[in-house]
Write a structure and sequence with these properties.
It is a single chain. The chain has 209 residues and is an alpha/beta fold. The chain folds into two domains: 75 residues, Winged helix-like DNA-binding domain superfamily/Winged helix DNA-binding domain (Arc Repressor Mutant, subunit A); 114 residues, NAD(P)-binding Rossmann-like Domain (Rossmann fold, 3-Layer(aba) Sandwich). Helices cover 45% and strands 18% of the residues. It contains nine helices and nine strands. The strands form two sheets. The chain has a seven-stranded mixed beta sheet with strand order 5-6-4-3-7-8-9. α8 links the parallel β8 and β9. The termini are far apart. It binds 1,4-dihydronicotinamide adenine dinucleotide. 1,4-dihydronicotinamide adenine dinucleotide (NAI) binds next to α5, β4, α7 and α9.
């Protein structure tokens, strides 16, 4: 099991290990040395050994890593075998795209409800789920107890909606808005996603080639 003091940078690299190992497993690879893994992933072999040692190693001298086993262990650490009940708020352009294209179930989440305040959207199906009226959020959460919310609403609506969700027991936010949830709710888990940050990072690299 992970130690509490595992650094954020190691945790941030785990999904990448998981993705690469998943591909290798799909291609029938049974084992891989840390140097081969490093070549494929672009991390140094010593970085890989250090990263995986944070969680107890998994490798064997002279054998390397068992791909399926390492994939399963990293999946366990990431919690992808969990099914955290999740609601998505804001079924506009972004919310629908996220709901339709993200494989929540393979990542530890179970999307159980989609909400919007626009009455015209009520009942439309996204990923087989009907868009529900936001006025029904309270009853839905009392009944189904989701622990995670995906926020795809305008930032101005985010404070109020977050407050309601926290009151209803939501403990994790996948936050696409610019509202700073962590500053206001230090006890909840937040992962902010800003595609524009990624685009600007590309701009920086492009201009510093
Ligand atoms: P949109 O206008 O298409 O959709 C927003 C939806 O939220 C609408 O359907 C609206 O009825 C609903 N909504 C507004 N207030 C609500 C509330 N209190 N409760 C429930 N539903 C509510 O906008 P779009 O393009 O989907 O963007 C949504 C948000 O995501 C915006 O804040 C935008 O800035 C942000 N965004 C973030 C990105 C990122 O990388 N972080 C990328 C693109 C958009």
């Amino acid at each position: 099991m992970p130690k509490n003091d595992v650094s954020l940078s190691v945790i941030k690299r785990l999904p990448r290990y998981y993705r690469f190992l998943g591909e290798m497993k799909k291609n029938g690879l049974q084992r891989i040395s840390s140097s081969e893994l490093s070549k494929r992933m672009g991390f140094t072999a010593s970085q890989i050994r250090q990263d995986l040692n944070c969680f107890g190693g998994f490798g064997q001298q002279g054998y390397g890593y068992n791909v399926s086993q390492l994939y399963a262990e990293i999946g366990k650490i990431l919690g992808v075998n969990k099914k955290a009940k999740t609601v998505l708020i804001g079924a506009g352009n972004l919310g629908r795209a996220v709901a339709a294209h993200m494989s929540f179930e393979e990542r530890g989440f179970n999307l159980i409800g989609i909400f919007d305040r626009n009455e015209a959207l009520a009942g439309q199906l996204v990923r087989g789920l009907p868009i529900r009226q936001i006025s029904g959020l309270y009853d839905f959460c009392r009944e189904n107890a989701p622990t995670v919310a995906v926020l795809c609403i305008p930032s101005e609506s985010a404070a109020e909606v977050t407050q309601e969700l926290v009151n209803l027991g939501v403990k994790g936010f996948w936050n696409f808005t610019h509202y700073d949830i962590s500053a206001n709710y230090p006890g909840v888990a937040v992962e902010n996603v800003h595609l524009s940050d990624s685009l600007m990072t590309l701009s920086y690299h492009l201009n510093n080639l």
